[in-house]
Amino acid sequence: MQIGYKLFAEDVAPKELIRRAVEAERAGFDFVEISDHFHPWLPEHRHSGFAWSILAAIAASTETLRLATGVTCPSIRYHPAIIAQAAATTQIISDGRFTLGIGAGERLSERIVGAGWPEVGDRHRRLREALEIIRMLWGGETSAYRGEFLRLEDARIYDLPDELPAIVVAAGGPQAAELAAELGDGIFATDPDAELVGAWEAAGGSGPRYGEVPLAFAPDERAGAEAAHRRFRFGALGWKVLAELPDPAAFDQATQPVTVEHMQEAFACGPDVERHLEVVAPFREAGFDHLALNDAGDDPDGFFAFFADELGPRIRSEAAARP
């Protein structure tokens, strides 16, 4: 079992994200995973730094901590050739500690380049083409590609690592799970969905299984739920809605019915290690072996101490006892 810390770039300034990554390594986390968006989700969010610059600084500031994107869309706002190059460079400067997490994206960030927002089937076909281009460029030869959506003209990546990064593909349903099995090295999900993992395995998938666990460390349960509501109420909408809304104002309006009590049910709120373990358990039981703890609380340093002293050892001991 690998345990990671989610770097929520939409609500935390870039230098503070780097500091938190360093503290996460000291607290005993195995990896950090950073979101890669152009816009934040909610009006309360005040940041959205460039993930790849932050990753480079983290790589230079840590020694054993693994790094991952959680996740990057390599097919609209970025061209896959740029992501292939960025991931290869990040793998080199981190001495092989990088994992490329990719997905089909959300309108919120991808529409900014004026390319429109494709319907879901086209998004998955674009993602397939992007994966094919990345794999092709990582072969080290000058390459060209002409797909239904994407083009590549006589491109070559000159700096490739000795060991290529793993590609972990975000999946919210069977179609994406099959794509992850075919062209990825692992799967990424935000829900503890055993059927999704099963569909991926049935399609031939193997490798790491990343899941994001919703937590909100705080002095008491109510304070944790209020912090989760302030930062993460957008997550209650589900991915079919998350992918389609255009801006923070729309997310603010759509989340008006979401209450603090809803967040209290979904998140492990407060200081009780047993409640946190209760929320972690479904991910472990569904087969996820890389858990990114997504702390919505107001005290990151308190959370790191809580993880080092209580939560981390308990997660690892329970995982060892129930393989």
Secondary structure blueprint with pairings:
Blueprint: E1 2-7, H1 14-27, E2 31-34, H2 51-61, E3 66-69, H3 80-93, E4 98-102, H4 107-110, H5 120-137, E5 143-146, E6 151-155, E7 166-170, H6 174-183, E8 186-189, H7 194-202, E9 209-216, H8 221-232, H9 239-242, H10 248-254, H11 260-266, E10 268-269, H12 273-285, E11 290-295, H13 300-321
Parallel strand pairs: 1-2, 1-11, 2-3, 3-4, 4-7, 7-8, 8-9, 9-10, 9-11
Antiparallel strand pairs: 5-6
Helix pairs in contact: 1-2, 1-13, 3-5, 5-6, 6-7, 8-11, 12-13
What does this entry look like structurally?
- Keywords: Oxidoreductase.
- Helix 1 packs across helix 13 (300-321), helix 5 runs parallel beside helix 6 and helix 12 (273-285) packs across helix 13 (300-321).
- The protein is of the alpha/beta class.
- 45% of the residues lie in helices and 16% in strands.
- The protein is globular.
- The protein has a single domain (2-321), classed as Alpha-Beta Barrel (TIM Barrel), CATH 3.20.20.
- The chain has an eight-stranded parallel β-barrel, surrounded by seven helices. A two-stranded antiparallel ribbon has the order 5-6.
Q: Helices and strands: which structural class? A: alpha/beta
The tally of helices reads 13
CATH C-level label: Alpha Beta
- What is the domain tally? 1
The average pLDDT score comes to 97
What is the rounded Rg? 19 Å
Q: Strand percentage, roughly?
A: 15-25%
Task: Give the quaternary arrangement of the chains.
Answer: single chain
Q: CATH homologous superfamily - what is it?
A: Luciferase-like domain
Per DSSP E runs of 2 or more residues, the count of β-strands stands at 11
CATH topology: TIM Barrel
Output the helix-strand order: EHEHEHEHHEEEHEHEHHHHEHEH
> Main β-sheet: number of strands, strand sense, barrel status?
8 strands, parallel, barrel
User: Span between N and C termini?
Assistant: 9 Å
Organism: Agrococcus carbonis
Domain Luciferase-like: 12-289
GO molecular function, one term: oxidoreductase activity, acting on paired donors, with incorporation or reduction of molecular oxygen
Keywords: Oxidoreductase
